[in-house]
Amino acid sequence: MPDLKTPLLKGDALRERFLALDAFVLAQQSVWREKPFIQQQLHWETQLPELAAWLRGRSLADAEASHTNLCSLAAPHPFPHWAQQAEQLCRVGAFNAAELNARPLRMQSGIAQRKWQQIEAFASAMHSDTQHVLQPTQRWLDWCAGKGHLGRYLAWPDAQLECLEFNPELISSGQAISQRHLPQAQHRLCDVMSAASAPPLQSCDAVVALHACGDLHTHLVRQVSLQQTSTLALAPCCYNRIQAEHYQPLSSAGKNSKLQLDRDDLSLPLAATVTATTRERRLRDQSMAWRLAFDILQRQVRGVDEYLPTPSLASTWFNKPFALWCQDLAALKKLPAVPEQDWVQLEAQGWQRLAQVRNLELVRGIFRRPLELWLVLDQALFLSEQGFSVTVGEFCSAELTPRNLLLLAQRL
Ligand SMILES: C[S@@+](CC[C@H](N)C(=O)[O-])C[C@H]1O[C@@H](n2cnc3c(N)ncnc32)[C@H](O)[C@@H]1O
After folding, report:
1. Please, what is the end-to-end C-alpha distance for the chain in angstroms?
2. 233 CA distance to ligand 1 centroid (A)?
3. 47 DSSP assignment
4. How far apart are CA 280 and CA 157, in angstroms?
5. Which atom of ligand 1 is found nearest the CA of 167?
6. Shortest-distance atom of ligand 1 to CA 119
7. What number does the ligand 1 atom closest to the CA of 164 have?
8. What fold does the segment set 105-270+368-411 form as a domain?
9. Which residues line ligand 1 (CB under 6 A)?
10. What's the predicted TM-score (pTM) here?
11. Where are the domains of the chain?
């Protein structure tokens, strides 16, 4: 349910919240940086033996049932304390949805229902009465537009729309769809990271970006400031898709922080799988249990007690029997010959490790949303420093998309 009682974050609250999150994630970084999938034993387990033993004793189903509900988990200290702190620090209001004119039903055709609902929610959040943002917008720019569904929704029926995208197939199908519903729309082949994205940012009234990844959204935030764009609405995604080794903070509070986030850390906010189907989950579980079993095996075969990264594998690999899968993966990794094993037992150990890993990962899970909000607030604070009025809130429920934070900025 959207949280309409909690205020949206704006003004001084942006900085206050950022600093509180910064202190929280820094204080516990030795805990959330450790990776149960890679490390058979975590350092914090010796300091918190009761919590570690409790988590290790739980089943895979227990972990699955808890991972979206960490606050109510009756785990030993300090788990509940951290979970409550995180919950409080991440409480962000929801944009008050505006009633928009219904779009013709035919505009939905070919768009997954979930995507359409995200678009409706994004558009109505932009027009919510808590915003002083939108004087009627005449020229919309959709950044990393895909087929331009969001931009077309916003510009319908008679505003201008330019969609920037670098996948030619998405551009031509987007243009074909626009031909039917919004013929004035322009779908342009453009690498938004290049100088070619500057003129559209200068000439639009508002730029929107739904789920633009890593560098694509931080670049947008910087460019909106440089190119004098007046309005931005951004729902960021895939924070780890960056070229640099580490996240480069934008705001002065971010630059002053001691928190250094590498690409691995930046993938932590993305780990929730609320939108995966049952089949996707089953495949993911099998893949992880087998890889954990392989990890036990490779440590034996190499005589080195260290994790060995394995490549992503086509799903057809998982149609093989477990023993053959292990042998083929060992050959792919050029390991010494694998001696005959009790394969049934090894596979069972993999599943047991998976249950432990998933339960230990619940601790990391506490820090997912705080890290995500830290990142979004860094970008919000940067835009405030650059003379924008900025609001951060949720534009839809986490069930619709876990990447449900929206940053709205308007040049003052
Ligand atoms: C996660 S999708 C989001 C698409 C769309 N906004 C939506 O919500 O459906 C990200 C899009 O960014 C595009 N993209 C990636 N890198 C790009 C670049 N350098 N320039 C322009 N578009 C890019 C991808 O092709 C993809 O369509």
Report:
1. 32
2. 15
3. H
4. 38
5. 25
6. 8
7. 21
8. Rossmann fold (3.40.50)
9. 144-146, 150, 164-167, 170, 191-193, 210-211, 213, 216, 237
10. 0.94
11. 105-270+368-411
